[in-house]
Structures are given as structure tokens and as C-alpha cells.
Automatic annotation (TrEMBL):
Residues 1-66 are annotated as: Disordered. It comes from the Bacteria. One of its GO terms (cellular component) is cytoplasm. Homodimer. One of its GO terms (molecular function) is adenyl-nucleotide exchange factor activity. The gene is grpE. Gene3D superfamilies: 3.90.20.20, Head domain of nucleotide exchange factor GrpE (2.30.22.10). InterPro entries: GrpE, GrpE_CC, GrpE_head. It comes from Kytococcus sedentarius (strain ATCC 14392 / DSM 20547 / JCM 11482 / CCUG 33030 / NBRC 15357 / NCTC 11040 / CCM 314 / 541). Belongs to the GrpE family. This is Protein GrpE. Participates actively in the response to hyperosmotic and heat shock by preventing the aggregation of stress-denatured proteins, in association with DnaK and GrpE. It is the nucleotide exchange factor for DnaK and may function as a thermosensor. Unfolded proteins bind initially to DnaJ; upon interaction with the DnaJ-bound protein, DnaK hydrolyzes its bound ATP, resulting in the formation of a stable complex. GrpE releases ADP from DnaK; ATP binding to DnaK triggers the release of the substrate protein, thus completing the reaction cycle. Pfam families: GrpE. One of its GO terms (biological process) is protein folding.
Length: 208
């Protein structure tokens, strides 16, 4: 019978020592690996912190470059010059239109006696036919081509800016009339553009 006390013991202490050594050797590497891992934001992306750059809100925005400011000033000057040119052009066009209307108005003023004769002849039925009727038609057509507009007609509502009431009568007006109305044209009026060369001279009647 063999004595069990003579059997060599299991090298348990050696195994424990070896395990401890492996743990000690691996610990610095784990710490080093953890030190190299970047932070992770709430969105899951790593956040690398650059210590050399300050936070975005830590300093004011840089001043614009002088060339940028100069370019902005030149652009504003160009826009202002363009606006002035457009205003000048529009003003000159209005002035030319006024001068043209004034010139045509002067011609119409000189022709008023002739135009009144044409009106009277038409009122008396003398322009139904003949050479005089053709001349009158050509004259009125030519004036219309130059923007001359005749105003004042029986049945029109009286407009003090275009008509001059020389008489008030008790003439019967159409049913439903609610405003003063022209019942007779004594002399027609003429307008060129916005200029009233002569207001129509009329007789009017008031609604009952």
C-alpha cells in the first residue's frame, strides 16, 4: 500500500501566480485602449475635442474683408445710379408727353371755331352728304389720330371736370335717372391726354 503523502501536490500556487501575471500584463493595455477611445455624443457619433481651437461661442465672428465691404458699397452705388436713371427716363417721358399734348392742344384751340361750325352743321342736318361732310369727317378723324377726344353728348351724366352747365331745364329724363344729365350740347368739349382744352358747354336737367 502506497502512502498518499508521498504523491507530489498539484501546482495550484503556480497556476494562481500565472493567472495573476497575465491579468497584470493585460491591465495597462486595456487602460491604454480606453484612453484612446473618443467620446461618443448622444447621437452615437464620436466627439473629438480639439484643445487647440476654442468653442464656437467663445469669440466674435471675424471682421469682413475690406474688399468685401468695398464691393458692397460699389454695388449699392450701382443700384442707386440705376434707380436714378430709371426715374430720370420716366420723368423725361412724362415731360415729353405733356409737351406733345400742349402742342396738340394749341392746335385744337385754334380750330375751335371750325369745330363749332361742324357741330352746328351736324345739328341742323347739313352734314348728311356733300364735300363739306367729307372734309368735316377727315378733320375729326385726323384729330382723333392725334389723341384728341370729343366730350359732351346728350344722355351723359354731368361731370363738372368735363362739362360746363350753361342752362338748367325741366326736361323729362329717362325713368330711373338719379343724377344730373346732359339734355343738350351747345358746344362740344375737347380733351388731349389729361388736358381739357375746352369743357363741353351743355344744358342739363336734374332728376325729379
Amino acid at each position: 500500500m502506497t502512502d498518499q503523502t508521498d504523491r507530489p501536490e498539484e501546482p495550484q500556487d503556480d497556476l494562481d501566480a500565472e493567472a495573476q501575471r497575465l491579468v497584470e500584463e493585460s491591465r495597462p493595455e486595456q487602460v491604454g485602449d480606453q484612453a484612446e477611445m473618443p467620446e461618443v455624443t448622444a447621437e452615437g457619433a464620436p466627439a473629438f475635442v480639439d484643445e487647440a481651437e476654442p468653442a464656437s461661442g467663445g469669440e466674435a465672428a471675424p471682421e469682413p474683408h475690406p474688399d468685401t465691404l468695398l464691393a458692397a458699397e460699389r454695388l449699392e452705388d450701382l443700384r442707386r445710379a440705376q434707380a436714378d436713371h430709371v426715374n430720370y427716363r420716366n420723368r423725361m417721358e412724362r415731360e415729353r408727353a405733356k409737351d406733345k399734348d400742349a402742342t396738340i392742344g394749341t392746335v385744337v384751340e385754334a380750330l375751335l371755331p371750325v369745330l363749332d361750325d361742324v357741330h352746328m352743321a351736324r345739328e341742323h342736318g347739313e352734314l348728311t352728304d356733300g364735300p363739306f361732310a367729307a372734309i368735316a369727317t377727315k378733320l375729326e378723324t385726323t384729330l382723333e389720330r392725334f389723341g384728341v377726344r370729343r366730350v359732351g353728348a346728350v344722355g351723359e351724366v354731368f361731370d363738372p371736370t368735363l362739362h360746363e352747365a350753361l342752362m338748367h331745364t325741366q326736361a323729362e329724363l329717362p325713368e330711373g335717372t338719379t343724377e344730373t344729365t346732359i339734355v343738350q350740347v351747345l358746344q362740344p368739349g375737347f380733351v388731349v391726354g389729361e388736358r381739357v382744352v375746352r369743357a363741353a358747354r351743355v344744358a342739363v336737367a336734374d332728376p325729379a
